[in-house]
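Shall we go through a protein fold together, starting from nothing but its sequence? Please make up or recall a protein chain and show it to me in full. Go ahead whenever you are ready, and we will take it from there.
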Amino acid sequence: MKRKWLGIAVVLIVVAMLPIVVLGDEEPTYGGQISLSFGHHTPDIDKAFTPDFINNGGFPVMSTLIRWKWDSSAFVPDLAESWTISEDATTYTCKIRDNVKWHDGTVFTPDDVVWSWTIQLHPDVPTSMVNPGAIAKIVGLQDYKDGKVDYIAGITIKPENIVEFKLSEPDGTFLSSLAHLRIFPRHLLMNIEPRDLLLADFWQHPIGTGPFKFSQAVPGEYYECVRYDDYYGGRPYLDKIIVKSLVDSATRVLRFERGETDIIEIPPDQITYLQGLPNVEVRVIPTPKIRGLEWVFKKTDIDARVRTAIMKALDVPMLVNIIIGLGGTPLELVNSITAWALPEGQYEPWGYDPEGARALLEEARQDGVWTNRPIEIQTYYPDDVYRSLLEAMQSYLAAVGITMNPKVVDDATHMKEFYEEFTTDAALTATWCGPDPSLMADMISSANLYPAGWNGSYSNPEIDTLLDLAAGTADQEVRKGYYYQVQKIAHDDVAMGAMWAVSFAYGVNKRCHNVFIGDQVPNPQYWQVEKWWVDE
C-alpha cells in the first residue's frame, strides 16, 4: 500500500548550516593527538597510498601549489607563496617557496612541480582531475598525450623560482586546477615508468611536504601521521593525527561518544542525539553534491512548461525533510552553495504550487505539446531512501494529473537508457558544482554532451556563450555577472530540476580547537590541520 505523502504535518528540525569552527580564548598548546573517522569517506587503507588515495583524503602528507581556504571563499598559498594571472587569463605564474623540504630532508624545487604535473597528465596515469576543461587548454598538452613529445610546452620554469602555465585560450577557472594536483617528489619517482607509477613501493610510505609525515598504517584499522617539524609554515601544534577506518556508523558513533575518536562524520539519524551531548560540537555542512531531476531533452513533449509543472508539483522541502532528513539541504539552482555566485532574488522560485502546475500542464495541452502520457523517472540509487523518494514523487505528481512510472536500474542500464538510447524520460541523479561555479558546465554546457561529459542531452547556445565568457576572465565580479545569467536561464528553462544539496554532518569533541570544517569540499586537506590543537 502506498504511503500518503500529501497533507502531512511535519515539524522541521533546524540545524545551523555553518562551518565548524571550534575555537576558544586559550592560547594554543603543543602536543597531543587527534583521531578522525569519516565513514565511507575514509580512505581504503587496505590499498597502497596511491595518488587517488591522497587526493581523496590521505591528508596531510602532500601539498598543492595553492589551496582553497577552509571555508572555500578564496584561494590561499601553499607551495606557491604567490601567483599572478595575466589580463587575458592565458598565463598563470606561481612563485615557488624557497624554504620547503621534503619529509626526507631533500630540498623542494620548481623541478618537482613541473615533473609532478607532467607525470600526472600522462595518458598512462589514471588520476582524477578537477576542471578538466581548463587542464585541456594547457599549451602542448595534446602533443604530449599523443606521444609526439615527452614534455608539456605550456608548463615551464622561469627565473626566480617561477613556474609558468600557458593556456591556448583564456580560462579564468585554472586556479581550481592549481589547487587540486598534488606535488610529488621527483627525486624518488622520476625513474618509474608512468604506467607503473601507482604500483610503486613509494605509496606504501609516501614522502610529502605537508605539515605531517606519514608514519604507519595497519590495514583495515588506521593510518597515522606525525608532525613535521620543518614544515614551511612552522611546527604544527599536534604531535600526531590518526585516521581510523570505521565504516560501520554505529561503531563510529559509539567510539566518538566514548571519546575514543575526536572527529567523525555523523550518520543523519544520529545528529539530533549527538547534539544533546555536552562535549560535542555538531554542524551540518551542505556540499556541492547536488541531487535532482535530469531530463531526456529528446522528449520534446516535456517542454519547459511541463518541466516547471513537475517541479511545482513537488513539495521539495517536505520531501527532503521527511526522506533525506538532515543529510540534505533543499535548493533549486544548479550552483548549490558557491556564495559569491548565487543570484539571490534574481529568479522566480518554483515553490510548491500544485495549482500553478495544473495551469502549465493545461497550457501545454492546449498547444498540442503535452498529451498527458505517463512519464518514467528512473534512478540508479538502489537503496530504500531513493525508492521512498520516487514513491513520494509519484504521489505528488498524481495529484496534478501526471502518471509517473518509477524505475530503479543499475548503472549500465541507466547509461544505456538515459545517455545512449534516450528511452527513459528523466532520472533522479547527481552532479557536482563547486567549489568553483564553473563546474556547473558539466551538466548544462553543449561542450560536455555525453560522451565528452555528463550532460545527457541539454543544449542552449545562450548558456554556452555565457559559460565561455565566464571562463574567459579571472575577474570574479565579471564572472559573477555571467554566472548569474547562466543560473537564471537554466532555472527558467529547468535545465536540471535541482532538489537538494547533499549535506555531511560532522561531530568534533570540544577538547579540539581551531578545527575548521568548511562548506564546499568535505576533504580535510583544506581544514588547516597545522593549526589544530587539543586540551590534554
